[in-house]
Here is the input.
Amino acid sequence: MFAGTRVLVTGGAGFIGSHLCRRLLDDGYHVLCVDNFYSSTRDNIVPLLAHPHFEVMRHDVTFPLYVEIDRIFHLACPASPVHYQRDPVQTTKTSVHGSINMLGLAKRTGARILLASTSEVYGDPTEHPQTEAYWGNVNPIGIRSCYDEGKRCAETLFFDYWRQHRTPIKVARIFNTYGPTMHPQDGRVVSNFIVQALSGSPITIFGDGQQSRSFCYVDDLVEGLIRLMDSDQEVTGPLNLGNPAEFTILELAERVRDETGSRVDLVHRPLPSDDPVRRRPDISAAQRVLGWSPTVNLEHGLPQTVAYFRRLLGCASVQRVTPKSPTNGASHPPRTLDE
Ligand code: NAD
Ligand code: UDP
Here is the structure.
């Protein structure tokens, strides 16, 4: 990309989107952030509002968007199970209609477009670690399906636009990403555990805690997304982007307790249905094609994330969080700090 390039970031007010917007501005691009604030607030982008090359538009991507743009990072979609299961029909619409609209925009403007897809396309994987060649093991009618199948359909649309219209596409399959500015009530495991430990509430382990995830620090992920966007036109992906270091959820809980110095109890809650048992990316394709590897391991990323939440909880009135598992009654999660 060249400085001055007009870049659209859908979902730009979200956790990853706001880090991406900041990085793009730092690199000299003109950034248009489009978001309907379904799973975020303006808090993440307030620090960017004064930047002369930053613009924000409240818009739902399930409706067409007419702007002139050179590049599109298409991130709009709730990513936390608690959020995407709150209104599953809207989640599927966001993935499918949203992708059709953004691909239509890319086709009209000639913009290059990148999809923030997900490791969830592999479902509860029967192959480990997961390579891009694996087609996945996804329940099409379960509580995670709105997200998993929505993203799978989005990938289908991207590759059909590529084959049918030669739209320049890029598909990133993002694995669990964490870091500062996650919303304290976002519902994902890293933020839940840190907020619980810092606020003296028991850490909620869903199931026996032996399920695993691999955690990527947000700066590494943003670097991977930018390299993929900048890669040669024939590089479409899909490419796994994540950190292959794998931890059980129990190990994560222990690390959070150590890092926070908190001795809160670990309490077990029912495992939500279809919760993947194991997840670890094979990133050899991204290493080969993009020259990209994560550089921040959990030993370094967790302290930075804990420090962020310490500052946040010290200066904002955040209530104690004892999240329910998504199957446990589908409580409506608090959406913002100030609602
Ligand atoms: P997030 O919920 O913080 O951000 C998503 C953003 O999209 C929010 O700002 C939300 O308000 C916005 N949004 C949702 N529906 C919209 C709509 N219809 N129109 C416009 N905006 C809409 O989540 P995140 O962690 O920043 O994830 C960003 C993207 O990365 C998502 O597409 C997600 O599927 C993907 N991803 C994230 C992870 C992860 O671990 N964070 C893993 C895999 C994939
Ligand atoms: N999890 C947990 N306690 C929580 C939140 C999540 O044990 O308070 C577990 C969840 O069941 C899953 C893992 O942590 O096995 C990761 O959950 P998350 O919602 O962060 O992301 P997922 O990878 O499941 O989409």
